[in-house]
UniProtKB/TrEMBL annotation:
Protein name in the entry: Uncharacterized protein
Highest taxon listed in the record's lineage: Bacteria
Lineage: Bacteria, Bacillati, Bacillota, Clostridia, Lachnospirales
């Protein structure tokens, strides 16, 4: 999923289920793990196990030593799906050259142009992604992308239409940055910290200091929720521009006060 082609079989829930089985068993032969994931007495059809297992290893959740599967880090236990999401966010920067990363960055930064496509899997979108990534992107690949992009919080999916609002992703990224509550961060300092895990959704042209729709929507929602405070200072040179909107806060952002993100 994150190394090589994107796939539809390795959806987040299946990967997390595999992780929890291994966590519970401590160590387990690969064939026994597959039997638990796909019970032979009730499972029929094409096996998804290899794709799920491959994704779990890519995300540094489990490892295979001579056919015995165990956790990569037995001391780091992911208690729930929210902790799993944060784990994926922390390892995602390792896949900056991946098909998943490239497609994510392209789609999120289409802004309003994303609505020109009937679906993320239609032929025009696939042609655009193929041209920009230099790889052949097929419909099953982008259907696989859909599950992970929504899980990570790049935006919402209405069927196969992508709605850019990265509130969930940004909220989780910010929670990983060890920011001090009630502290005001100049926007360049904040963005420098945010780039550690949030780069995948930002435009490659960060020098122009323009937030895309997904990031702008996220910041406005965080602001409205009281999790951060967006501030405008006319006397400050460094500012980032929010994507134009009818929302209340529509001024250039010069600094951000961190108040504390709410638990999901």
């Amino acid at each position: 999923m994150f190394v090589g082609n994107m796939v539809t079989e390795a959806i987040p829930a299946r990967v997390f289920a595999l992780y929890k089985i291994v966590e519970n068993k401590k160590s387990i032969p690969r064939n026994e793990l597959q039997a638990l994931m796909e019970p032979p007495e009730i499972y029929e059809g094409t096996s998804y196990f290899s794709a799920i297992f491959k994704t779990a290893t890519e995300l540094k959740l489990v490892e295979n030593k001579d056919g015995i599967i165990s956790l990569v880090d037995a001391n780091k236990q992911l208690k729930n799906i929210d902790e799993f999401r944060k784990h994926v966010i922390t390892v995602l920067p390792e896949f900056e050259e991946s098909q998943f990363w490239k497609c994510s960055n392209i789609i999120v930064n289409l802004n309003e142009r994303v609505y020109e496509y009937g679906a993320i899997s239609d032929s025009n979108m696939l042609n655009l992604l193929s041209e920009r990534t230099g790889e052949t992107i097929k419909a099953p690949m982008i259907r696989g992308w859909r599950f992970w992009s929504q899980f990570l919080g790049f935006g919402c999916m209405n069927g196969f239409t992508f709605l850019p609002n990265a509130y969930v992703y940004c909220k989780n990224v910010i929670s990983l940055l060890n920011l001090e509550k009630k502290t005001e961060y100049p926007i360049d300092v904040f963005m420098s910290k945010f780039m550690q895990y949030g780069k995948v959704i930002l435009s490659e042209k960060t020098g122009d200091r323009n937030f895309n729709i997904a990031m702008s929507s996220a910041l406005r929602e965080l602001h409205d929720n009281g999790e951060i405070v967006l501030k405008f200072g006319s006397d400050q040179d460094m500012k980032w521009i929010l994507y134009p909107s009818k929302e209340l806060f529509n001024q250039p952002v010069s600094s951000i006060v961190y108040k504390g993100v709410k638990r999901e």
